[in-house]
Amino acid sequence: MAKRYLTSNQGAPVQDDQHSLTAGVRGPILLKDTVYLEKISQFDHEKIPERVFHAKGNGAFGFFVPYQSFASLTKAGFLQVPEKATPVFTRFSVAGGSLGSADTVRDIRGFAVKFYTEEGNYDLICNHVPVFPLRDPLQFPDFVHAVKPDPVTNVRGGPIAASRLWDFVSLRPESMNFVLYLFSDIGTVKSYRHIQGFGVNTYKWINLRGEEVYVRYYWEPCAGVECIDSKTAAQLAGTDPDVAGRDLHDTIAAGNSVEFEMRVQTIKVEDEDVQPFDILDPTCIWPESMFPLIPVGRLVLNKNPENFFAEVEQAAFSPAAIVPGIDFSNDRVLQGRIFPYADTQRHRIGTNYLELPVNMSRRPVDNKMQDGPMRIQISKGVANYLPNTLGGGLPAEAPKKGKAPQEYVSGNIGRQAIPGDNYYQPGYRYRTMSELEKKHLVANILESLSQAYEPIQKRMLEHFMCVDPDLGNRVAQGLN
Description:
Largest sheet: 10 strands, antiparallel
CATH architecture of the domain at 21-169 and 187-363 and 416-421: Beta Barrel
CATH topology of the domain at 21-169 and 187-363 and 416-421: Catalase HpII,  Chain A, domain 1
Number of helices: 13
Distance between the termini: 33 Å
CATH class of the domain at 21-169 and 187-363 and 416-421: Mainly Beta
Oligomer: single chain
Structural class: alpha+beta
Shape: globular
Mean pLDDT: 93
Radius of gyration: 23 Å
Low-confidence stretches: none
């Protein structure tokens, strides 16, 4: 068979499909990374009208209130006044399944919160597992393709489906932490009221003095965390496939609220390089023993949508939707998520998707962007540009809020891998599991991995032995 080489859609050779183009190993992704932009843009536009990922979901309206002022850490307005309520919309979802899939399948759950703040919308996008499977966003389209039905048969089960997932993760050893979370009982749930939420990515909080801290977000369900085993998940998938969405709706319809506590971990920016691990690596957690969780506030969901399509299906979130006092770190996966979410929504819903009520800012929007399909807002005046004098120079640039931090970036431009330990954290997690949790984890792995092709099984066994020999031996025995 003739050797085939990877090319762009223009036919140009692609010499590195594993690493984004950055300024230095930990620097930001560059806009001139045409390999990443073409790949992620093509990925964003490959399906209509269903979301490519997190297609099936349910949501609710409510409010968020902080417990105290966090002015010492951030100038974000919605975190300044204790008990001041900010309206929110929250969408829970199943990541890999289509609109008709079951709520209980083994998968990642999305937990996205849109804060309608007085400074504009802030979207906080979380998953119900605390780690990401990849260190570089260039591989994200490939990961999604691997967990979706294959392009030949479009079938989810069987050897091909199992082999596709395990084939991919066996070639990405940084995914081992993610694999252990996904195949534990955390991977199967029946109620959105009982899942945690993890921001996974590292953001920055900035106060009025321009001081920065790194921050990671957590949501803790006030009703407690609950999971189900694989057998129960399969049973419910056949008898009550919409159990999580129905449970959320019925709970609120009965007059009860669904509540979560926001918690954060923080690290001073100047302390980044003295940590024993890469704090910007989304495949790793920040140990709570080193960085205790700080309670921030309470999320209360108490109102069901009046129309599912208008308020849930058309809801759109983006990590790029931030407010003053919150900024992006050089977490490469976060950098790679800034662009594609909004790009996907412009394709899926339309150019002016932010004018739909569920997505619209509660603060008046005033800029010179215009036209496009389904434009609702009417721009007045002849000066549809800035700067101008015909329109009185308006809208004027907003006044600065506090001191802006300065970030110095330097480094050789290139496609560089982020170094990291792939096995320490998943090994530590495995060794702290109870015996029952270990048995369930191994059984869940075997249920899927036993269907994969033998060479892939052998590759995964090598990884599991590196995670912990006991785990590797148990999986090996299960595979004979």
